[in-house]
Amino acid sequence: MIGNKNSQIRLGIILMLLPIMLSIFGPVLTEYDTTSVFPANRLESPYSEHLMGTDNLGRDVFARTCFGIRVSLFIGAFVTLISLFVGLVVGTISAYYPITEKLLMRIIDGIMAFPTIILAITLAGILGAGVINIIIALSVSYFPMIARITFNSVRSVKETEYVESTIAIGKGDIYIITNCILPNIISPIIVQTTYIFAMAILNESILSFLGIGIQAPMPSLGGMVNDGRNYFMTAPWIMTFPGLTISLIVFALNTFGDGLRSHYDPKNKNVNRMFMAS
Amino acid sequence: MTMLGDKATHDQIVNMRQELNLDKPVVKQFSIWLTGFIRLDMGDSLLWKEPVIEIIMSRIEPTFLLALLATTISVVLGVPTGIKAAKENGEFFDKCFSLGSLISISLPAFWIAIILIHLLCVKINLFPVAGYRSVKTAGFLVAVYDLLLPAIVLGIMHSGQIARMTRTTMLDVLQQDYLRTARAKGISERLVINVHAFINALPSIVMVVSFSFAGLLGGATVIEQIFNIPGTGNLVITAVYNRDYPLIQGVLLFIGIIFVFTNMLADIICTLINPRTRLE
Q1: In which domain, by residue range, is B103 found?
Q2: What's the total number of domains in chain B?
Q3: If you count Cβ atoms within 10 Å of the first and of the last residue's Cβ in chain B, which end, N or C, has fewer?
Q4: Which residues on chain A place their C-beta less than 8 Å from a C-beta of chain B?
Q5: Beta bridge partners of A54
Q6: Does residue B86 fall inside a structural domain?
Q7: Which tens digit of pLDDT belongs to each residue from A178-188?
Q8: CATH code for the domain of B201
Q9: How far, in Å, CA of B2 to CA of A169, rounded?
Q10: Does any domain span residue B192?
Q11: Does residue A278 contact residue B214 with C-beta atoms inside 8 Å?
Q12: Predicted complex: ipTM over 0.90
């Protein structure tokens, strides 16, 4: 869309490099700690010795943003991997063994009957805050999307002749699934995972913003926006930088996903219903 | 245990368990809940000690109104721009459109909402900062005015998706043979795009609009929380904060039903628009 597909993929990667670099090298670039409180230095502006200023407790916003990116990317990556894995397994099994379809796909339908963010909020609230619980809550909300796409693709590929002939030469189910079916269905799923990555980061920030995600004093981008909301008039930098960072990461991932989609699916045949995080 | 605190006596715990039917086997508990649900009795909220169903009913109005407003805004913004972008595929407008729609779906709504509150409500006093006056007490227009800023934020967020969907479907439809025929008949280009092509793209657009509408009806949780609108999304958060399990169950079930029902309605509308999808 913006330029051709390759430039889109490239733009996505370049934009993604900045937050990744910051999350890796952030602690080297600043001498400040993420959690040490310096009341004397509170609400200092970005033009001082603090690159992005300090927050209401005198903590360095830059250091906290870098760490927040690390947390967000970590959670996003894990949610994506878990949903990809569980979704692939559940989708393939229910399509390949029709007996299991009734049970598995009804569970998937049940989960998909709720808006993802509501489900994530409820699960995170019930499980309690913490990184692992957020990962569980978000993975449960997102794996059905992968499972559904996998289910539909596997079911159509299963009927093709090359699968039939592989069955005829006596190969086992696992060989057929990993060698004949998965390579043929993986591209739309890869595209979907980039969107899930983006949405997981967005929803993690929403959970942390609401206070049921990452708990203070551990920095998180959403939590920092919440910290800074009462100081927006006097110290806009507290919430501006984390918010911008979330936008940048999500934008980069979406651009990358769009590029991948036009690469794999130039005619946009698979327009998946994107699940909005509202 | 958590509800009574750690100082509770044994008797109190036993009484509480009896009251909540927790002393019965799980299957029995489920059947009590299910028969209760059929009679629309989902138990009492632990927090407010009121029937869950009444609490939910009192929260529907703002959420419904907000969803309606936000969807209207997103459709008015999204559909025409999507059509224009499809018409000028690959040109300057299309590129700006792609960038804009991508930004609109990438921005965190809560962040934009807070910035807009500070700029538009606190600084220049254009909108009320937060809160909601119901239609009954303050009249329809006041209620709409209270919900306007959250609706704008949500509308812009959702318009990106709707616009992208409109553009993709329109691009697809514009390549069809019947449009060439329509043009060959000498129908003006405007009529071709706005009538012939648009009607064929309508089912997909209805689907994505209904999907965003259903999501909003389920509750725009964060936005409702920020603007302090007493809707179902806010109710979910309050219930979760207070670990009010009967209320969480009730609201989730309600949201699920609304979500499924809205999507079903959209399917029906689609079959009305597009005779090809009708079942024999």
Answers
A1: 57-277
A2: 1
A3: C
A4: 1-3, 113-115, 117-118, 121-122, 124-126, 198, 202, 205-206, 209-210, 212, 222, 225, 229, 232-233, 239-240, 243, 246-247, 250-251, 254-255, 258, 267-268, 271, 273-278
A5: A60
A6: yes
A7: 888 888 888 88
A8: 1.10.3720.10
A9: 61
A10: yes
A11: no
A12: no
